[in-house]
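Here is this case:
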Amino acid sequence: MQNLNLSRRIGKFAGDRRAIGWLIVISLGFAGYMWLKQNPQHNPLAPLDVRNPPGLATSLKLAEITTDRGQCRAALTRSGIAFHNLIPTGEGPCSLTDRTQMTGAPMSPARPISTCPVAVGLQIWLSHGLQQAAQTHLGTKVTRIEHIGTNSCRRINGGRTGPWSEHAHGNAIDIRAFVLSDGRRVSILQDWGKGEKGDFLKAARDAACDSFRTVLSPDYNAKHANHFHLDQGTRWSSACR
């Protein structure tokens, strides 16, 4: 009789432990679901919205839109970003099949025409990392980005042979300077590695790596002494230097 009672107690204890274990699993699952719902930038199943800061799943979502322009344009529309979808032009290796222009972007000398993934990367960078870097290191915000173009029908490093540059089809943009709300201008050529402006530029470069596949700066080589190169190439490797 005592053995029977002991067996029942052991069975009840084991059953209680299983119930508690399932309760913990369910609670953790619900907590994780609510956290992902509140932080969609970390949820790989949530659609890309550039209003959200970069998160754990952002690089995956950016990779998806580089191969699906429909998803890319849907992301801009979903995010409330005004843009023009322009007709394709050109032919051969320098054909421009994806021509997207963000109409509200604070760019000069003119609003650039690039691929949609580059436009998305620019918007994420401008809205989040770039402004945070300016506020942290310069106590102000960026009001204009100066660029030196997106399209250039050439091979990498201007050679006669070798792979075509991402610029050949507008899948890259070069940035040379930033104008701040207090009127100051920060030039990559003149201010890289110098004081608080230099600190801002390095933070801006690092932040760009959250929204672009490749980011090249003066730390990469002398050819980038006066600009940041930002692209959304689909090559197997990426760079942030």
Remarks:
- Residues 2-38 form the longest helix (37 residues).
- The domain at 85-240 is CATH 3.30.1380 (Muramoyl-pentapeptide Carboxypeptidase; domain 2).
- The CA atoms of residues 139 and 201 lie 14 Å apart.
- DSSP finds six helices and nine strands in the chain.
